[in-house]
Design a protein that fits this description.
Blueprint: H1 18-22, H2 25-34, E1 37-41, E2 47-51, H3 54-62, E3 66-67, H4 86-89, H5 104-115, H6 118-123, H7 125-140, E4 144-146, H8 147-152, H9 154-164, H10 171-183, H11 189-212, H12 224-230, E5 232-233, E6 236-237, H13 240-270, H14 273-284, H15 289-302, E7 311-313, E8 317-319, E9 322-324, E10 329-332, H16 334-337, H17 372-389, E11 394-395, E12 417-419
Parallel strand pairs: 2-10
Antiparallel strand pairs: 1-2, 3-7, 4-12, 5-6, 7-10, 8-9, 11-12
This protein binds protoporphyrin IX containing FE.
Family: Belongs to the cytochrome P450 family.
GO molecular function, one term: monooxygenase activity
Pfam family, one: p450
């Protein structure tokens, strides 16, 4: 490969078809080689630049001339509100981290980082393990399951509810609201909007109640919402609205991503028997090293986030030699960058012990995933427990019969039917 795109021998592949959703990687390989910064019309009618090479992607993710604020989007009237950014439709959600730039982003991220610490995540490990075991208990005797609905979907929602401090008796409501959000994506908006409203209303009320009852001193094991209320920086606190928007974005950003990490990851292991056996053997020997590098590799190989969230040029700039005009939307294709042969040796191979694996699955720069420690904990716990409890786990259908969600930002399976010896 050269620095400049080679002349294209065939026309650009069709993007956003069902075939593309099932396996976008050949199309991404074509784009990386022939049109690494590619202008395309998205299914919504919005025109955007797709950035597919690793080096360009990394640079774009850190480029402060690319704003996250949709107000910079110079969108045509027919495409108004179709970028699928929640903040675009609901002004009250505008204060969340993925829609704002410095200095607001810096202030909010600093405050939330004081509450959402790696230590708080580590403290939730025993509960995540317990939840994982309980979910498997519910289907282990059947000998078959749909791993998306019965496992990958409920685990993250319960885990984040526990971390936030949502009382257990209310957690099934969250499961229902989240289910509505994931099932109807790209479909009718009414049900999704109602679920978002109920979730936000609930969180605002919970924050208010927790604030009223907050003890003067933090107690060990204090929940994340109490931590968010308490967090202060130079005497500044989050307002109740900001805390509610923050709790909501933690749920929103940490839910479907983790469902897909578990779903895509399990699927990749079931279709790479040699890698799966290596992992099972290492788990049986009580080792965790391969599990840790393995989950990173699964993120690189077929990660949950296909395209990083939107960015908009605030001024004229060049990415990979391509001129980008002010107001133009830019989508960084993490899934394409993470298979770039310029960066990764044998990029289409799954190698659970891969070293030097600086993938972009969690993004890069100031918006780098805040929930990465929690996602790692959930991904490692889910995969290790599944393979240990159900050692002969196998797909119940042919890979070609699986359906992928055709979402723009996320990559994930609709269902993952499996079979195993009942236990
Ligand atoms: C940001 C991926 C899980 C919370 C991001 C970004 C990516 C990402 C790529 C950057 C987006 C961009 O630059 O446009 C993932 C993946 C996950 C995961 C692959 C699971 C495997 C989580 C979890 C949480 C979370 C569990 C929280 C509970 C966030 C937040 C941001 C973010 C709050 C915004 C950070 C900011 O703008 O400063 N994530 N995420 N994520 N993620 Fe995650």
């Amino acid at each position: 490969m050269t620095d400049h795109p080679a002349p294209a021998p065939t026309p650009a592949p069709d993007l956003f078809t069902w075939e593309f959703a099932a396996d976008p990687y050949p199309a991404y390989a074509w784009l990386r080689e022939h049109a690494p910064v590619h202008r395309t019309t998205l299914p919504s009618g919005v025109e955007a630049w797709l950035v597919t090479r690793y080096a360009d992607a990394k640079q774009a993710l850190a480029d402060q001339r690319l704003s996250k604020n949709p107000a910079h989007h110079d969108e045509p009237a027919h495409a108004k509100g179709k970028t699928g950014i929640p903040g675009e439709r609901k002004a009250e959600l505008m204060t969340h981290l993925l829609n704002i730039d410095p200095p607001d982003h810096t202030r909010l991220r600093r405050l939330v980082s004081k509450a959402f610490t790696p230590r708080r995540v580590a403290e939730s490990a025993p509960r995540v393990r317990e939840l994982t075991g309980q979910l498997i208990d519910q289907f282990a005797a059947k000998g078959s399951a749909d791993l998306i609905h019965e496992f990958a979907f409920p685990l993250p929602i319960y885990a984040i509810c526990e971390l936030l401090g949502v009382p257990r008796e209310d957690q099934d409501d969250f499961r229902d609201w989240a289910g509505m959000m994931i099932r109807h994506q790209g479909g009718p908006r009414g049900g999704v909007a109602r679920s978002v409203k109920k979730m936000r209303g609930y969180l605002a009320d919970l924050i208010h109640r927790k604030r009223e009852a907050l003890p003067a001193e933090p107690a060990p094991g204090e929940d994340l919402i109490s931590g968010l209320i308490r967090a202060s920086d130079h005497g500044e606190h989050l307002t109740e609205n900001e805390a509610a928007a923050m709790a909501f974005i933690l749920l929103f950003a940490g839910f479907e991503t983790t469902v897909n990490l578990i779903g895509n990851g399990t699927y990749a292991l079931l279709t790479h028997p040699d890698q799966r056996t290596r992992l099972q053997d290492s788990l049986a020997a009580g080792e965790t090293g391969l599990l840790e590098t393995g989950v990173e590799e699964l993120l690189r190989y077929d990660g949950p986030v296909e395209l990083a969230t939107w960015r908009f040029a605030t001024q004229r700039l060049a990415i990979g030699g391509q001129d980008i005009a002010p107001g133009d939307p830019v989508l960084v294709v993490l899934a394409a960058a993470d298979r770039d042969p310029e960066r990764f040796a044998d990029p289409d191979a799954l190698d659970l012990s891969r070293r030097d694996n600086q993938h972009l699955g969690y993004g890069h720069g100031i918006h780098y995933c805040l929930g990465a420690p929690l996602a790692r904990l959930e991904g490692q716990t889910a995969l290790a427990t599944l393979l240990t409890r159900l050692p002969d786990l196998r797909l119940a259908v042919e890979p070609d019969d699986l359906r992928w969600r055709g979402g723009l930002i996320m990559r994930g399976l609709r269902t993952l039917p499996v079979e195993f010896t009942p236990s």
